[in-house]
Amino acid sequence: MIPASFDYVRPGSLAEACQELAADEDAKVIAGGQSLLPLLRLRLAYPTKLVDVARLPELAGVHDRGDHVFIGAMTTHDEVMRSGVVAAGAPLLALATAMVADPAVRHRGTFGGSLAHADPAGDLPAVVLALEGVLVARSAQGEREIPAADFFVDYLESSLRQGEVLVGVKIPKLGDGWGFHYEKFHRTAQAWAIVGVAAAVRRSNGSIQEARIGLTNMGTTPVRARAAETALEGLELGDGLRQACEEAAADTSPPADLHAQPDYRRHLARVLTHRAVRTAAGAP
Amino acid sequence: MPRISVKVDGIAYEEDVEPRLLLVHLLRERLGKTGTPAGCDTSNCGACTVMLDGKTVKSCSVLAVQADGSDIVTIEGLAANGSLHPMQRAFHEEHALQCGFCTPGMVMAAIDLVRDTPDPSEEAIREGLEGNLCRCTGYCNIVRAVKRGAQEMGQAVKSS
């Protein structure tokens, strides 16, 4: 399987990359290519031009910025997993990233690429949504900050505009008392999540003060399990946890595919949310 | 057509490539490195795994132009002075293959794993090789081979 022909440019600067993308609406950014190349090979995408941003220094690096961690869009999954700054400031992200695909894919695939690809079956969109990350995009018109809740628009569609490049993501640090977990259900080791649940839970005096839950593959975008979050608020750790997590699939429209029907995905969302919240809260 | 420079198994090449040319096809069809097979074509099976600047990649999911300036090592570049790499030898000794199609990728992934985790547990080996599929062996002999290869790689480091 060979992709259809396209032009290829490797701009020397971010400004130049923005220009290339602004000038051609059928041009597409390539980062690590781990999602895009299979699409090209299966001829599901026909860009006229690939703009390679993988080596742009403006998009590299992980930085501790006090109240948040800034992760350059071209940071590979492997680099995210190994980053001490991420481990300290955004441990849920480190945990979930280690579950993305397999080592060889993680060497090439990038954090920003997997968010811009906006696949609701990808692990990281739901994690960034749960952590209330802010995505930073740059174009010739300047820089724009997009909260994760506004970034994922539809299946494989983000709110990035023509001529915009995702520069990086701000992940707010959550303070003391927060626990985290990512539960991923898949049939084979390197496969996509049939359903995944990212949970961040703040606990105090034996009860849950606040819960943030992001769901993977439960709709055309990653979604928050708002009803479950509300049901968990103020709840004492104990028997009520499972019942609160029964709300996890409320207001979701999960897809049907070879792996699962929507009702089975709803079931998984409830079970996995319970597991994720229980682990995140450190409950028995 | 873009011109790229790559080093493959220690030899420098300059090639004019169509942007859509995949690294696996550059290796096999232009440079004759047929030791790297193209398997599933969709970054699933890992048979085409090579080292790009010291890290494993699936060469069916990298464009040759993306590899411009890189140092690539394939299964053909592992043996030194006519003797197999310890991991290749371990796969041979432990009979970690039947048809052999996945073996080049398995060996590359195993070496990458051991560089990171010099004495991997069985669980670490199975996780480290999760991107490589074998449809013959059931993996038992592969796990044994990686353990043995890891030990021999460790000894090779100590004695050098």
UniProtKB/TrEMBL annotation, chain A:
Keyword Flavoprotein carried by entry: yes
Ranges for domain FAD-binding PCMH-type come to 1-176
InterPro entries reported in the protein's UniProt record = CO_DH_flav_C, CO_DH_flav_C_dom_sf, Diverse_Substr_Oxidored, FAD-bd_PCMH, FAD-bd_PCMH-like_sf, FAD-bd_PCMH_sub1, FAD-bd_PCMH_sub2, Mopterin_DH_FAD-bd
Keywords from the UniProt entry: FAD, Flavoprotein, Oxidoreductase
User: Which Gene3D superfamilies does the record match to this protein?
Assistant: 3.30.465.10, CO dehydrogenase flavoprotein, C-terminal domain, Uridine Diphospho-n-acetylenolpyruvylglucosamine Reductase, domain 2
Q: What is this protein called?
A: FAD binding domain-containing protein
From TrEMBL, chain B:
Q: Which Pfam families match?
A: Fer2, Fer2_2
Q: List, for all copies, the residue spans of the domain called 2Fe-2S ferredoxin-type.
A: 2-78
Record keywords: 2Fe-2S, Iron, Iron-sulfur, Metal-binding, Oxidoreductase
What domain of life is recorded for the organism?
Bacteria
Q: Does the keyword Oxidoreductase apply?
A: yes
User: InterPro entries annotated for this entry?
Assistant: 2Fe-2S-bd, 2Fe-2S-bd_dom_sf, 2Fe-2S_ferredoxin-like_sf, 2Fe-2S_ferredoxin-type, Beta-grasp_dom_sf, Diverse_Oxidoreductases
**UniProt name for this protein:** (2Fe-2S)-binding protein
